Fold this sequence. Notes:
Elements: H1 13-23, E1 32-34, E2 42-47, E3 51-56, H2 64-75, E4 86-90, E5 100-104, E6 109-110, H3 113-116, H4 120-135, H5 155-164, H6 171-183, E7 192-194, E8 203-206, E9 209-213, E10 220-222, H7 230-233, H8 237-247, H9 251-272, H10 277-292
Antiparallel strand pairs: 1-2, 2-3, 3-5, 4-5, 6-8, 7-10, 8-9
Helix pairs in contact: 4-8, 5-6, 5-9, 6-9, 9-10
Amino acid sequence: MGSASDTRPLIDAALVRRLVDAQFPQWAELPLTLLEPAGSDHVIYRLGEELSVRLPRHTGAIGQAKKEYEWLPRLAPHLPLAIPVPVGVGEPGCGYPWPWAVSRWLDGEMATVETLASSSEAAVELAEFLTALQRFAPVAGTREDLTGRPLADRDRATRAAIARVDGVFDTAAMTELWDAALSVPGWDRPPVWFHGDFHTGNLLTADGSLSAVIDFGELGIGDPACDLTIAFTLMSAESRAAFRAALGVDDDTWTRGRGWALATGLNAYSSYAATNPRVAAQTTRQITEALIG
């Protein structure tokens, strides 16, 4: 048996029902419906028609509920797409060890390559979203929960992942891109806000158009290159060019963005591709498009 720090709690409807009823009795009569597929960080239940409940699966996600509760209401009025509206943070209880979140339900379907890859209009909308996010004034001082990690922190893990997928992807091309991403100058302007997990799975659409951006658990301040990952998870070469032009990305930041897309794609591919065909397809595209540039 693992230690307490690496043991994942069993999260089922009965647990969520007990937590909601005990801590938010005003919603005790609302039905719970499991959302599938959920992400790797949270189990998500729809609560009635207007709410959702998100419970972290592992220790790496346990600070996200309080971070979103603090910052999303401040960011929302400044952003051109809808984002989650937190309405409460639950406390540990009923055998569940971590904070958890209740938010307003956002209608929509997960964005897909099939519906949006060729849309330069959607690409420009995403650039406008990031521009608005980056213009929001950063907080004064340094806060550990908002400080972005440099790309170089992923060096060892990424090189190990490159070695593991030898024969699946072009090892020489991946190594060349990764070396380039680490060698270009870093962000030399004032730090700005970034989403931190800006990929297709965290975008919602309604009637085929972008409607919302979700999952701000990696929200932070620093180099915005990590958010360029969306260009390689969602876009075609043509729409990617429109996105880059609208955002005004310089060559060095673009190269770092390709590095972020490669590193995060390799991490997800190595962790989930063998057991999750959907993730395998998404991350294969992400890695391939990052190599194209």
